[in-house]
Design goal:
The chain has two domains: 180 residues, 3-Layer(aba) Sandwich (Rossmann fold), CATH 3.40.50.1010; 74 residues, no CATH class. The protein is 51% helix and 16% strand. The protein is built from twelve helices and nine strands. The strands form two sheets. It has a seven-stranded mixed sheet with strand order 5-4-3-1-6-7-8, sandwiched between helices. It has a two-stranded antiparallel sheet with strand order 2-9.
Amino acid sequence: MNDAETTAAPAETSADVPTGVPIDAPADAHALDARLSALDARVERTNELLQRMLAEVAKTPSTHAIFVDAGYVHAAAGLLVTGTEDRRSFDLDAEGLIEAFIDKARTIFADSRLLRVYWYDGARRRIHTPEQQAIAELPDVKVRLGNLNANNQQKGVDSLIRTDLESLARHRAISDAALVGGDEDLVSAVEAAQGYGARVHLWGIEAAEGRNQAEALLWEVDSQRTFELDFCRPYVTRRPVTTYENEGEPPPSREEVRFVGAQIAATWLAERGRDRLAELLPGAPYLPGPVDQDLLVEAERLLSRSLRGHASLRRALRDGFWQHLKTQY
C-alpha cells in the first residue's frame, strides 16, 4: 500500500464525536427527570396542604373578648346617672350591663364569636364580695380581682388587664378586644396586644363633664365608642336615702351603740382578715376616713337611727369597734 492509499483513508474528525458528553448521558437524563418529577409531586402536595389549611382558617370565625374595668364603670356611670361616684350611693345592675355590652359587641363584631367577658374589680385581700361572687357565676364572665388599699383604691387591676390582653393576643385567642376603661396605665396593655396583631377598641361612658379617659389611651387604640346617658340609665339606680322614723324617741344608749360597733368589727375582721387588722392597729384609737365612714353608715342602718350630731355616741361606736378588734389580735 502506497502513501496515497494510506492518506486516502477517511479520518475520524471531532465533528463526528460530540465533545463534553459522557458515555452514560442517557442514564443521567433519566435520573434528572425522576428528580424533577419527585419535586413536582412534593410541590403539588404542599399546595394541597396549604389549600386545606386556608380552607380551615376560612371556616374558623374570628374571636373577640370584652375587658371591663369595674372601678371605671362604677365611677363614670354613677357620676353620669346619679351625680356621685360613691358606690354606697347607688346600685349597679352588673348582670344587665354585661349583657348590654355583649349585645353591642355582637353587633359591632358581626362575624366574630365571643370568647368571654373579663370583669376587673378590687376587693380586700382579693376575696370576692357577695356581689362579685354573683357576677362570677354569670355565663361567659371571668372576674379578676386586684386589691383595695385603706382608701378603697384599686391596686393591681391595670396589670391584670395587661396580662390577660397580652396573653390572649400572643396566643391568637382573640382578634379584637373591647376595652371598657379610661386609665392611662392601660396604654401599655393596648400596645402589648397590638404588637401581636390584635385590634383594641376603647369603649367609654359619657363624661358628666370634661373627659374621663386619658388622651394617651384615646390616641393608642384602633377605634373608640362612647355610651351615653340613655344607655347607662337602666343599669344604675340611686339608693333611697335612709329615713329614721323614730327620731323623736330618746337616742340609743352608749352600751347599745358600743355593742353595735363590736358587731360591725366582727364582720369587718371576717371579710378583711388579720393582715388588714395589723395595718389598722398602729393608728388606734383613730380610724382611716373611709373605714370610719363605713362604720357610721352601717351602725345607722343597724340602729335605724342617725348618729350625726351625737359625738359621744360616735365615740362609743368606735370604742366598741376597737374593743372587739383588740381582743382578736
